[in-house]
Amino acid sequence: MKNRLKVLRAERDWTQADLANALEVSRQTINAIEKGKFAPSLPLAFKCARLFQMSIEEIFLDEE
Amino acid sequence: MNESPNAVTNYDKRSIRDNLKFVSWVFLWTASSVISQKAKAYGWWEAEWITLMSIAVNAALGLLLVHYYRQMLNRMDDLQRKIHLEAISISFGLGLVLSISYTILVTWGYIINEQVSDIFTLMCISYAAAIVLNTVRYK
Description:
heterodimer; A: mainly alpha; 434 Repressor (Amino-terminal Domain); two-stranded antiparallel sheet; globular; B: 81% helix; flat
């Protein structure tokens, strides 16, 4: 699943560790999501949306 | 915006604490298993009720270990939980399939000194290997 996490993170000058701390997950999880290797669960997607004050669809892009 | 692959997050700190507690539970359970198995063989005590008590303590510690592992799984983040659940399914599947093959080998006399711990060891090794492989895969 494609997503804009890396771009949104860069805009705020956050490291992966900063984002991981904000979302209470491991840095490995952030890295895997950014690289599209792993699709987050719905609760984690909502958490991202709340953190960036955006809708889920603005962050995560459905490739189908 | 530097990416430090070694940056330790709050989640990592909590995860390390959880893993250390898990290892402590495993150590306690393993120690109680050894005590309840070897005590009678080496004559550490005579009374039957102490042997039965040591087996009960071992079973209780095993159940507490399972309970703690379940709690630990629930505290993991999405990716870590996926990695561990996949490892559990691989280990359980291999244990199930290979225990049947093992039983057939024992039945036909290809294995003479059969031990249940052989399957247990295989499951532990496959679980650990699956965790390492999945961790590398999602790196």
